[in-house]
Specification:
alpha+beta, 6-stranded antiparallel β-barrel, 5-stranded mixed sheet, 25 strands, about 20% helix
Length: about 475
Amino acid sequence: MFTAFSAFSAFSALSVRRRGAARLATATLVSGLVAAGALAGAGAAAADETAQNQGGAIATVSGLKTYGDAVIHGAAGDLKVPAGLFEMSVEGGGTLQTYCVDLQNPTQRDAKYHETAWSGTSLGVNKDAGKIRWILQNSYPQVNDLAALADAAGVGSGLTEQDAAAGTQVAIWRYSDGADVDAADPQAEKLADYLEKSARDLAEPEASLTLDPPAVSGRPGERLGPVTVRTNADSVTVTPPADAATTGVRIVDKEGKALTSAAHGSQVFFEVPEDAAAGSADLTVQASTTVPVGRALASEGRSQTQILAGSSESTVSATASATWAKEGAIPALSAVKNCAKGGLDITAANEGDEVFTFALLGVEHSIAAGESRTVTIPLQEDQAYDFTISVPGAFEKRFTGVLDCRTQGSEAGDSPQTLSEPSPATVGSPATDVNLAATGGSSATPIIAGVAIALVVIGGAALVVVRRKNADA
């Protein structure tokens, strides 16, 4: 049973291990370049901007709601931190409860998250990710009978909600980050030990809602697709392209019947008029359902990765695109983060009669007519990227995001850093909390900020826009 909590914490996940100075400078410079690139491209042809969201819930973090204390042990000493359940508000309605699987990265206040596959997060390269899901399934809040949970863990004195949340988070951190961490409360620590020792490997849960594939292409006069609906909802509503009345594009089933709703396994198509000029369109499907426990939630910026522990009935959605032209290369482009390969997988399916060519980071890729191929664009950890690929018909597909595939604990040679921790705030406290972009302040903060600003300026001066036109465009 899902429970809302009233406690609020201005919690920032802990940067217990420091980044090297060179890495900090590189990441800041890349961010400056990307920001400048977005501004420089504002006057170009309109681009279809795509974050790597494959569908599902989109939510904004509200804060740490139910928590106790944990102690992280490091070479520089022990650090006490809050540990427990976060709460998120879902766009369109609903609430999610999550635990952190990225202990040493910061939590940004009001950061926006989207449901994602494990492969796009640190869980994708973590052999113990399945054990984390077992912990979620067998502890609080999925097991909300605290007396039964205490009996299972051998906690004779019982568990409070705070004990249960803290013990569960500590057990997760031991697998997600390999952290040397204990719960401060003896009861919570006993629960953490029980969960850690009992955990078994479970498979990754299916998404709440996706469209497969997320992009299709073809010629006018054809039904472009199929696009298959994958969902745990009873049904989804189908929203046609915003300009459907002008372009004449319809969303239909395989018999050509207009669709306003669909179900799991349904195939939908874009029906494009034969006289349509080269163009593109999007369709959106939406449903109300619970998000499966164990789904990863990644931020659109640099905010710690979370994992789903509980869900109310929530709004989920997914979008698919179609591109068409009468002749030449007709590519369907989509992208997804690939943490196993350390980069961004860009899939191009060319349904045209000519080769489609694009170049990124100095490497040219050619997709033959009738061919579908995935290429991996290598990226550095924490690197913000902003790629725009032009397609025939003066259209562009833009992919933006940040590669966040590792927890800081995976960096060899880093040493623990003791940082001040913001204190929890209560409901009704002033809105001027500590900045969640960092775990407390230090005397170096103004210096780092100054360096960051300088690098952004340098980045703007040295801007190289990563954009290659198709030869036929």
